[in-house]
Write a structure and sequence with these properties.
By secondary structure, the chain is an alpha/beta fold. Helices cover 41% and strands 10% of the residues. The two termini are 52 Å apart. It binds thiamine diphosphate (TPP).
Length: 906
């Protein structure tokens, strides 16, 4: 085996030049443990190691321990349950999970589903359900391995929480009462709490959830009536060993250790296989993860071998088993899982005479029955028991299992097992016999669901256990008292009555946020989140005003302590300063945005970030946030492709609004004016905290300063619906308005480009005598949504010819841009597809301008010219749309290079 493979931790069977001396040392250690206890032994060993290091003695890797259980037999607590009944319950859950998937795939092969993953995880889940997962409103939070969902459904069925009809509609949801493929709170809002279907998101979200629970506690927001329970609440996260390859799975490791999140237990189901094959065929995933987690500062519990092995270990005084485990790579372990006892004896044990001898008394069947640790409730119980009592560190349990456990030749350890969805009669019989299920051949072949009567010992036990643990789970609650939210005039008077004062929308936001943080109602509930850009957005004053959350407070005097707004860290700090870590910041945001459900405490997260590093960078997390029914604000700052000048290709955002438009419960706004921002914030808070709608807001903010008007009368509705008129045509025309229709255009401007549209209107009127009306588009997405809905209604349920049965309503878009024959030119700081979102509902000539192509660094004016969203390009587009021959003159006059390649081709 390759010596770089981490399984090698120092071989106890290296040639020994002086065995007598070795024995003396070992005996001395034994005597010390005997007389003074293991703590003293630990102390001395540490001292020796320290000394050896100082003397430059080469040492074996310390982050990898032997390939055996971390918890010794002596530290194993007694099992606190009825193993026999639990085995019967777990067999029923296994069966129903398998039957559900097989039935679905008999009905239609296209439905999919997984059997093998849950088959490996079943005991890990069941011990949790019977002994550890606390239910109820302030219970534990469990993030389930997504494709093991069939097992969670099967248990809920036994518990009477799901009906047979629902199991029969696994993955058939469109008709209602179906079960979603993976945990999806959006699809099953009273059942699933946490969406984990996209691998890596589960562990990341779980870590930040555990941290957020501490945050709530330290800020005095944890449910005080349940304070004692609160601090013992746990976050459990089940993850596949293949899933640990996702960077997101590892992303939160160091913060979990740094913040001593001992309320977190991560269970890695090490079945050694992923979808295509072994996770580390030529190495050892367990040893590799041990090193990673231990190095990050976690408490690592290896749960590798079942109680069946204990007598063998006891007799193996020279650790031949350890040696054999260490030299076996995962690819071989997988083969052993797929093979029978005879094969295992021949290939695993018979390699060394000492091991051959060790198992000589066992039959091949006995060898076949030597389970791995993750299939032994006794060892699992012991690992969970220790994990939940461990203090000062998060715990990871590396549980070795067999993929497709119990599926026999149909799947156990097979390379193709992940996708196994059908079993033939023989395989079903074998599964039934393997788990001693009380069903006939006919029931077995029909894959009938089995649920013993409520008064049966199994069901009585199952319910009693859950009642003792506080209730059933998963179960998603929606109970959080609504909050009174402030009116805009209380936190944004300066913006509502701006009267032409210059400021950027970012500056306006920072002022509004400052005021909101002082609001008696929502102030404490706001969770400002920043990924190392507070200074960029002018928010450094918040450091001192509300403090930066740090569970250890501040152990140093900050360099700027003499300043009024110094870098203040505090245990009850309100601001989450995540460092350069958008993925972590987003995970914190989700924890806060779902606190109304997970904790019964509605919070209002406001995460402000470079807009390009949102949907583009952590888009999948935002999608999971939407699935989670998050409520909160995402602020894409320094937004747009031309407004953030000088930062070039990687920083300029031309697409976030396009992505945002695809998320059904995301209300996306690109306000160009501070007063618009005030109205959007006011309404967003009302909808999310007051009306408790499951929506969240994406709002872009710009760093360009320009004169801000006061809120125009009657503009509120239009701002929220997506557009309102900010300039009437003819303002700059010397002749009174009365010009022919053909000489008028309508300009739509969004975000910072609204200013260009307004300037273009002046050009059109002053230079060409063409009247120009300007609308501020705050949300192309909202306009499109309403129009889509009305179109659909018209398509499917048109009003009767007489129109007597229902009054047909027009959309806001149609009312704002009625068919007049006057062309419309729209421009935003995003790709033209954003302005194109409303094209199908526009009856007049429509030109959509945008910032397509790669970003550039340059001044704002140069960038806008480059992308052709500047005032001159808008004016030219308007003249051309009017069919005005003077467009050619305008191109010349404004110095537009009409021969240049389009910006998206440069
Ligand atoms: C981000 C992402 N990529 C890919 C998948 C598809 N997928 C689902 S399960 C799976 C294999 C999982 O292997 P592992 O984590 O080892 O779990 P096991 O099924 O072996 O328990 C893959 C690739 C996914 N769900 N999410």
């Amino acid at each position: 085996m390759d010596p770089s493979i981490p399984r090698q931790v120092g071989d106890p069977h290296d040639p020994d030049s002086d065995p007598l001396e070795t024995r003396e040392w070992v005996e001395a250690l034994d005597a010390l443990i005997q007389s003074e206890g293991p703590e003293r032994a630990t102390f001395l060993l540490r001292r020796l190691l320290q000394h050896a290091r100082a003397r430059r003695v080469p040492l074996p890797q310390v982050l990898a321990t032997p390939y055996v259980n971390t918890i010794g037999l002596a530290e194993q607590p007694p099992y606190q349950g009825n193993l026999e009944i639990e085995a019967r319950i777990s067999a029923l859950v296994r069966w129903n999970a398998l039957a559900m998937v097989v039935r679905a795939n008999r009905a239609s092969g296209e439905l999919g589903g997984h059997i093998a993953s849950y088959a490996s995880a079943a005991d890990l889940f069941e011990v949790g359900f019977n002994h550890f997962f606390r239910g109820g409103e302030r219970g534990d939070l469990v993030y389930f391995q997504p494709h093991s969902a069939p097992g969670v459904y099967a248990r809920a069925y036994l518990e009477g929480r799901l009906a047979e009809e629902q199991l029969d509609r696994y993955r058939r949801e469109t008709g209602g009462r179906g079960l979603s493929s993976y945990p999806h709170p959006w699809l099953m809002p009273r059942f699933w709490q946490f969406p984990t279907g996209s691998m890596g998101i589960g562990p990341l979200f779980a870590i930040y959830q555990a941290r957020f629970m501490r945050y709530l506690e330290h800020r005095g927001l944890a449910d005080s009536a349940q304070a004692a329970d609160w601090s013992s609440r746990k976050v459990w996260c089940f993850v596949g060993d293949g899933e640990m390859d996702e960077p997101e799975s590892l992303a939160g490791l160091s913060i979990a250790a740094r913040e001593k999140l001992d309320n977190l237990v991560l269970v890695v189901n090490c079945n050694l296989q992923r979808l295509d094959g072994p996770v580390r065929g030529n190495g050892s995933i367990v040893q590799e993860l041990e090193g990673l987690f231990a190095g990050a500062g976690w408490n690592v519990i290896k749960l590798l071998w079942s109680s069946d092995w204990d007598p063998l270990f006891a007799r193996d005084v020279h650790q031949w088993l350890e040696k054999r485990f260490l030299e076996t790579v995962d690819g071989e372990f997988q083969t052993y899982a797929a093979a029978d006892g005879r094969f295992n004896r021949e290939h695993f044990f018979n390699k060394y005479p000492e091991l051959r001898e060790l198992v000589a008394h066992l039959s091949d069947d006995d060898i076949d029955r030597l389970r791995r640790g993750g299939h032994d409730p006794v060892k699992i119980f012991s690992a969970y028991w220790h994990a939940t009592r461990h203090e000062g560190q998060p715990t990871v349990i590396l549980a070795m299992t067999k993929k497709g456990y119990g599926m026999g030749t149909a799947g156990q350890g097979r390379m193709t097992t992940h996708q196994q969805k059908k079993l033939d009669a023989g395989e079903l019989h074998a599964f039934r016999d393997r788990f001693a299920l009380p069903i006939t051949d006919a029931q077995c072949e029909a894959c009938e669901f089995v649920r013993p009567p409520r008064e049966s010992p199994e069901m009585a036990y199952l319910h009693a256990r859950r009642q003792k643990l506080g209730g059933y789970l998963p179960s998603r609650s929606t109970k959080a008292p609504p909050l009174a939210t402030p009116e805009a005039k209380s936190f944004a008077k300066f913006a509502l009555e701006a009267g032409g004062k210059e400021m950027s929308t970012t500056v306006a936001f920072v002022r509004m946020a400052g005021a909101l943080l002082r609001d008696a109602g929502v102030g404490k509930r706001i969770v400002p989140i920043i990924a190392d850009e507070a200074r960029t957005f002018g928010m450094a004053d918040l450091f001192r005003q509300i403090g930066i959350y740090s569970p250890t407070g501040q152990l140093y005097e900050p360099e700027d302590s003499h300043q009024l707004s110094y870098y203040k860290e505090a245990r009850d700090g309100q601001l989450l300063e995540e460092g350069i870590n958008e993925a972590g910041a987003m995970a914190s945001w989700v924890a806060a945005a779902t606190s109304h459900s997970a904790h019964g405490v509605a919070m209002l997260p406001m995460y402000i970030y470079y807009s390009i590093f949102g949907f583009q960078r952590v888009g999948d997390e935002i999608w999971a946030a939407a699935d989670s029914r998050s409520r909160g604000f995402l602020f894409g700052a320094t937004a747009g492709r031309t407004t953030l000048s000088g930062e070039g290709l990687q920083h300029e955002d031309g697409t976030s609004h396009l992505a945002a438009s695809t998320i059904p419960n995301c209300r996306a706004y690109d306000p160009g004016l501070a007063c618009e921002l005030a109205v959007i914030l006011e309404d967003g808070m009302r909808r999310m905290l007051g009306a408790q709608e499951d929506v969240f807001y994406y709002v872009t903010l710009m760093n360009e300063s320009y004169p801000q008007p006061s809120l125009p009368e009657g503009a509120r509705e239009g701002i929220l619906r997506g557009m309102h008129r900010v300039r009437e045509a003819g303002k700059a025309l010397s002749a009174p308005p009365g010009f022919a229709r053909k000489q008028k255009v309508r300009l739509l401007g969004a975000g910072a480009i609204l200013q260009e549209a307004l300037a273009a209107a002046e050009l059109l009127e002053n230079d060409w005598g063409v009247g120009a009306e300007v609308h501020s588009v705050t949300s192309f997405t909202e306009l499109r949504r309403e129009a889509m809905e009305v179109s659909r209604r018209r398509r499917l349920d048109p009003p009767s010819a007489s129109g007597a049965d229902r009054e047909e309503t027009s959309t806001w878009l149609e009312r704002q841009l009625s068919q007049t024959g006057e062309p419309i030119v729209a421009a935003s700081d995003y790709v033209s597809a954003v302005a194109d979102l409303i094209r199908p509902w526009i009856r007049d000539p429509y030109v959509a301008l945008g910032t397509d192509g790669f970003g550039r660094s340059d001044t704002r004016a140069a960038l806008r010219r480059f992308f052709e969203v500047d005032r001159h390009s808008i004016a030219v587009a308007a003249l051309r749309a009017l069919g005005d021959a003077r467009a050619k003159d305008a191109i010349e006059r404004y110095g537009i290079d009409r021969k240049a390649a389009p910006p998206w081709a440069r």
